[in-house]
What does this fold into?
Amino acid sequence: MLWTRKDLLDLQSLSVEEITAVLDTARAFRAVGERTIKKVPALRGKTVINLFIEPSTRTRISFELAAQRLSADVINFTAEASSLKKGETLKDTARNLEALNADFIIIRHSAAGAPHFLARVLNAHVVNAGDGAHEHPTQGLLDIFTMREKKGSLQGLRVTILGDILYSRVARSNIWALRKMGAHITLCGPPTLVPRIFEQMECRVTSDLEEAIADADVINLLRIQHERQRKTMFPSLAEYSSLFGINRARLAATKPDVLIMHPGPINRGVEVDSEVADGERSVILEQVTNGLAIRMAALYLVNGGQAASTETPEQAAA
Amino acid sequence: MLWTRKDLLDLQSLSVEEITAVLDTARAFRAVGERTIKKVPALRGKTVINLFIEPSTRTRISFELAAQRLSADVINFTAEASSLKKGETLKDTARNLEALNADFIIIRHSAAGAPHFLARVLNAHVVNAGDGAHEHPTQGLLDIFTMREKKGSLQGLRVTILGDILYSRVARSNIWALRKMGAHITLCGPPTLVPRIFEQMECRVTSDLEEAIADADVINLLRIQHERQRKTMFPSLAEYSSLFGINRARLAATKPDVLIMHPGPINRGVEVDSEVADGERSVILEQVTNGLAIRMAALYLVNGGQAASTETPEQAAA
Amino acid sequence: MLWTRKDLLDLQSLSVEEITAVLDTARAFRAVGERTIKKVPALRGKTVINLFIEPSTRTRISFELAAQRLSADVINFTAEASSLKKGETLKDTARNLEALNADFIIIRHSAAGAPHFLARVLNAHVVNAGDGAHEHPTQGLLDIFTMREKKGSLQGLRVTILGDILYSRVARSNIWALRKMGAHITLCGPPTLVPRIFEQMECRVTSDLEEAIADADVINLLRIQHERQRKTMFPSLAEYSSLFGINRARLAATKPDVLIMHPGPINRGVEVDSEVADGERSVILEQVTNGLAIRMAALYLVNGGQAASTETPEQAAA
It folds into this structure.
């Protein structure tokens, strides 16, 4: 096992071996969710704090369940209810949580770099659950885990990421990991949201949807954050849907075994039509299931995992 | 054991045998709450999600405790914090929760039929915690459980339900179950809220309080939802209290062993005076205790209960 | 062991022996937080309800973790989400929680005396987590626990409490406990907030900061609640900081082994400069860690602790 990091902060800094270690560990843990008793004792007596300064029910619940299935205790700490309102700084909040013997801080924050900052000042393990437009590493990992499970290998895989690339932390985490793992990436969307600068990350950049999806093995649709989208740079929802929404006709012009992915929640009729989202090429719900396994793996590995014992992930999941 | 259903959605569709199965199972589980260690391993490693799209602290806590006492893990998901705000549909939310390997979805929703809809699209067990003005089956079951414990039998029992019948899911669940179990039902309240149509459900309908309570064995008071009551159809609180509130004088005109029930929270001085609510005929707090036992029984039975093993509820509660 | 009380409501009514019993028990439990598995089975199967009618994330989390580490089940009940909005009285809420077989009610409330009221009407154990401007006993206990750990003894210790004494429940709990334990207390702050009446509690009262801190063994800084401070009685934050804030220069005029304490969260640059708050004399984060041990001790003792068995706290913590 090659994992020796205290934290999981981003995919940009991980090696191929480290990414592979997470994927392999997640495979062992995924089986836990399919058992009658969905629980292993790996983190019994450990305290996990969900520090969500930006709201996210789905990601928070996924981490909460991952911790529960590893038998850890979980505390939810959200900004609305917190003393952050009283002017406490993030650093003070985190140090206080650590002083409560927290072993893990899962942090979502609107500021890029917040998890890295905490990782430097804390002894606790820090896991990035999304920081600004920077990275969302467990989402990136669950995406490539799903691709690998379905396609066998990431090497040479053609992955098209579609939508608002510029402001997407999901896109960034996907790009870093997919490039490392040898996949070919195409980025597509409205030109204002998919600037040519991404070519420097060895991605093909295009606004031509037909070209972007014709040879794709995977189409990863980003969520349109229409409630907080930059009004001046973003077309209307109807325009977006008509130009870039994946419907039955457009699916017909793709490879017959293309995977349709989406981090959820879906805007039905915008990024994707229901027919496609619920169709046989869609692996959107499998992504959710795999996300739980990836988060179990992340908590397990940063805690020391096999590095700290002779136990294999398979044994930990037993 | 006669329980074979995957879900608990309403009392209208249950047979006498099924209702009796829940009541008998609840009796076994009620003893768990009286022990030093209030926990049995029946649902260890199972995941229960409280999906409350309409707020309800009391019912949510009752289900949360029921799940904890069966050793399940519980996740709370409320509409305020949820991605429902982002436009996600109920079906997508529920499917996502199921993809996280949720075994049980407890749902409260303002739309009648929401639990039935989920039960059809999910493999997870669905328990209705109140859907619009339709049903609140665990409330109905805890009400009749309390009546049976106190009166020995429901057969021939005279039960008066008092208040806003028309819009009450509690009333509907009571009516369905009590009729099946052989009780006689009187519905009483302001005429606009207790229409004659309920006579088709084999209930006596009256606006005459004296008549309604004179021969009652049980008086079940509905909560006045004055904060969201239809203004045009409902009298003032003072008027309601003076016409239908149960006070000492009115209690004196009932049978000496009448039971005073209320689903809570009480509006003291409106539906009932404190003297009566806290008096010796009141079983209001016992209803709360019994509710927990009923919810343990519901989770236990939909999960397979004895049908899945040779274990009796008594053994499961041991 | 001298603890026989059902509840922990205030420090005013505790004896020296009772206070000492909590401190000694907390020392045994503090070690639990330093282990790999931070859990003891002392309260397994017990139900703890956090009834927070006034918001407080930090204190709520500290109690929640304390309960988890004793293996109890915890339910959070906050006013925002509660049926208190529906007009339910505190007494009814608490009785309903007790009817759910709650073993412990941890209550924070804006009204002084609310915990005492509940303790009288409930069989459940009640722990005061802060009531109005009255008391915050677990904060007082963690403060003197920290002083005793660092200074060896409280007898003759010179403790200066600085800030808004008049409206501080933390100050009151400190004063009661420190006097009983034989410490000498100086109260200091703006004259409107530190009235001479406190001399009747055997405290030295002064507005002269230099005098107040020159011979202090401990300086306990109260948090300036500027978001809800009485506007007419309180100076501006800048004025408060310039008159009473502890900075490097002022620290230089204290004993070299003075302890700097603060209940948190800190207003950096107001009560204390960062240099001092993060400096070697500060024990602010240790207070947080000790708070968890104190709360474990409180829950353990009110539940019967050694009084109910031959088990020592050391054995319970084993």
Chain B has a mean pLDDT of 91. The radius of gyration of chain B is 19 Å. Chain B touches chain A through 24 residues (CB under 8 Å).
